[in-house]
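Contributing new complexes? Match this layout with calcium ion.
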Amino acid sequence: MKRRDFMHASLIGGASLVLSGCRRDEKENIYGINFNKGKKTKLTLATSWPAAFPIMGTGIENFAKRCLDLSGGTLDIKIYSKDILVPALQVFDATSSGQIDAFHSGVYYWKGKNSAFSIFGGVPLRHTSEEMMTWMDFGGGYELWREMYDRFNLYPHIGGTTGPQMGGWFKKEIKSLDDLQGLKIRMPGIGGEVLQRLGATPVLLAAAEIYTALERGLIDASEWVGPYLDNMMGFPKIAPYYYKGWHEPGSVLEITFNKQKWGKLSNEHRAIIEAAASEMNTKINEEFRYKNALAFDELEEKINLREFSSEIMDAIKVALDQVLKDEAQKNPDFKRVLQSHENFYKLNKKWDDISTKHFLNIRS
Ligand code: CA
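Output block (do not edit by hand):
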């Protein structure tokens, strides 16, 4: 847009703000604070987290409270922690069938439904949390996600992002590719597939089982999230080497609704949920950042921080490209979503390299 056009558009924007201010007054006269015509709507939402689980569990509880407050008490979303109404990893199916109205979970859990869903959860060595949000809102991510979830009768929103995750806790140092051979590591998703190609054995374990498996030597290593939640799991006590991350640069959580239920909500309630979900996403991201920073500050002296060698990282990059290429050949949905994801990655990387990355490199 030329500067003159921009100035013109800005003036029009200013004028419309004044006008919309008038309209808002009129609306308030019509609706007052009588949200949803005073009719109370109750929804049931199940999560994949234990009750009051830090950040994710408390985040969704706050979301429900915000919906209640913002709606003048007319939108009442009852949160059920994992395994109360449905098992933790059946929340997708239970919402799809209408048994419950909504769920809060991690997107990467559902790659068995459609491998393309793993991209909406995050791809190793690609988008950070901020990039994922931008791709969703402006780069075509939401359109594809909603189109593909529609086949399962679901309507998704981002419900939080973890920020960069760590590479995991290892009982022994990983100095070369040889050290990965036969290594039993708890790592789900595309990251696990990549390590498998390099000779490791990814193991799927529920959160509650990881500590004991690592302590008893049933597995040699485990990734979890970052310093705050990892420390709560007790990993520093049993696996001394903590590796910097590569596999989850910014994983996405979701708050997803049964499509019919979503369609039957009033415009007001849908708008309130969208606003509260967006707020929850921001707060969860900030809380991860803050609590990880505090936890790392405490842990720094007590752990052995490591980084994978360039030999290992080069092999990881080659294996990752192959995993993505192979899946794109098998699944046309995966191919489409990956293309959109990569398009934004390439576009944004040029800008990020001279802006964010530049600042991070030059500041002291
Ligand atoms: Ca993780």
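Reviewers usually confirm one structural detail per submission. For this one: The first strand starts at residue 41 and ends at 47.
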